[in-house]
Amino acid sequence: MVSVTLEVPGIGKYEQPTGLFIDNEFIPGKKGQQFEVINPTTEKVICSVHEATEEDVDIAVAAARKAFKNGSKYRTMSTADRGKLLLDLATLFEKNIDLLASVESLDNGKSITMAKGDIGACIGCLRYYGGWADKIHGKVITTAEGNFSYTKREPIGVCGQIIPWNFPLLMWAWKIAPAIACGCTVVLKTAEQTPLGALVAARLCKEAGFPPGVVNIISGFGKTAGAAIASHMDIDKVAFTGSTFIGRTIMKAAASSNLKKVTLELGGKSPNIVFEDADIDEAISWVNFGIFYNHGQCCCAGSRIYVQESIYDKFVQRFKERAAENVVGDPFDPKTFQGPQVSQLQYDRIMDYIKIGKEEGATVEIGGERHGDVGYFIKPTIFSNVKHDMKIMQEEIFGPVCAIAKFKDADEVLEIANDTMYGLAAAVHTRNLNTAIKVSDGLKAGTVWVNSYNLLHWSLPFGGFRQSGIGRELGKAALENYTQIKTVSINLKGAMF
Ligand code: ADP
């Protein structure tokens, strides 16, 4: 059996593929192993999916290699037809938006409203890169008379992609869309916590007409299937989104195997800075969204909140009131803003940080405890009076927990905001253009939002400074990850030596 019948609210029964998607077919893993997928809202098993081990990675890579061969159906497609694969896939996502969003809510616990937003962003991303497929080209470079030189951007080849559980389908789209636009083939491993949506999307790839082997989707664990991808001798590039710790492991494995190209999108502890001249209601709304969106499970979550001292007390009071209005509960209720954390492990990690914050002497303004009795729910938690060296100010918590501190002026806040190993994102709230630009320029982060937060867009590059990553996803920048430059230099002058 490589599928099961499941039921989700609003959709009813649907057929959930559970096999490994290799060469356009759902198949069992070679070892015949399966693992359970847990519903974070009920803590009950949803179903089991087939598990890929090293041998299955080899099979998937062989399929991707075959599809990438010169002369294959995929390699001989026109660039416009290749783009159309992504455009048709986007249309299928659109047709299936309710199903895809419901599977995402079931598997990950995110609210259905947010899940629909994710699928909308997947559609945008697929269309955007569908549009790029026939616009990727090199340059003619003149060196001297009698020489004609040009560059081409060739697809990098077979790409291994390893994604996390916080945005299962969005990360799937961010990875697959630019790879296909550039003419690569893919072996993508989903996170073991959230394999379901990607398998439904795999079926849509087949329906959209992707030739066999172009997109292969495997479910499995990091230490086995993930590690096999990172160290595979026949994978040309690995793209990873996840923790900084595992990112380092991936890079080492890539280096010690075949020096495959590496892009990493890693952790963060992003500062969100509120100046006294900001529109306070708007700033509170963005600060609330910055940390509590997706239950704080965002690599770019605005988890360090710095508020200028003259408005600190007022801000904390009103932010607390705002956070108390966030509806926590059943992900399938359209009013819900925050569902459960993804797993028992994440729940425990976050609760540990909350305990540490209390022990370190920070003030719990709101939350700091479990919500309800069933499911991995944690109340939105705000710590105030947090000192710079406290763990809750320094370490990525990846949950609905933020730390607030005051600052005097722009110079001081830049100093403390930048005193971190991370550099993924940051935000500044002010009505003063000079402050906005000075602080944006001074922040060491790959993205700076001004008077907003989490406003990602497929056309805007996203990625980390420092230990938050290597390379940029999204936008035109992502095309660089999946192509390599070939220089062709033609001598028109005959023998020279
Ligand atoms: P988290 O701790 O939030 O689950 P990880 O960085 O551990 O984040 O996981 C992100 C992705 O990396 C998942 O798909 C996971 O299976 C994978 N992964 C974990 N460990 C490894 C590893 N050693 N090699 C390759 N991939 C891994």
Main attributes of the structure:
alpha/beta; 497 residues; 7-stranded mixed β-sheet; binds adenosine-5'-diphosphate; 6-stranded mixed β-sheet; globular; 14 helices
Strand arrangement, major sheet: 16-17-18-15-14-19-20
What is the approximate shape? globular
Main sheet? Answer: 7 strands, mixed
Helix content: 25-40%
Ends distance: 68 Å
Strand content: 15-25%
Q: Structural class, from helix and strand content? A: alpha/beta
Query: Which hetero ligands occur in this complex?
Result: adenosine-5'-diphosphate
- Rg, rounded, reads 24 Å
Give the mean pLDDT.
98
Low-confidence stretches: none
Q: How many helical stretches? A: 14
Number of strands: 22
How would you describe what is shown here?
Strand 7 and strand 8 (147-155) form a beta hairpin. The chain has 497 residues and is α/β, with parallel strands linked by helices. The mean pLDDT is 98. The strands form 6 sheets. Strands 16-17-18-15-14-19-20 form a 7-stranded mixed beta sheet, with helices on both faces. A 6-stranded mixed beta sheet has the order 11-10-9-12-13-21, sandwiched between helices. It has helices at residues 54-68, 79-95, 97-108, 112-132, 168-181, 196-207, 222-230, 244-256, 280-292, 312-324, 344-360, 391-394, 410-417, 433-442, and strands at residues 3-8, 12-17, 20-22, 25-27, 34-38, 45-50, 140-141, 147-155, 158-162, 185-189, 215-218, 237-241, 261-265, 271-274, 304-308, 363-366, 381-384, 401-407, 425-429, 447-450, 469-470, 483-491. Helix 1 runs parallel beside helix 7 (222-230). It contains 14 helices and 22 strands. 36% of the residues lie in helices and 22% in strands. Adenosine-5'-diphosphate binds next to helix 7 and helix 8.
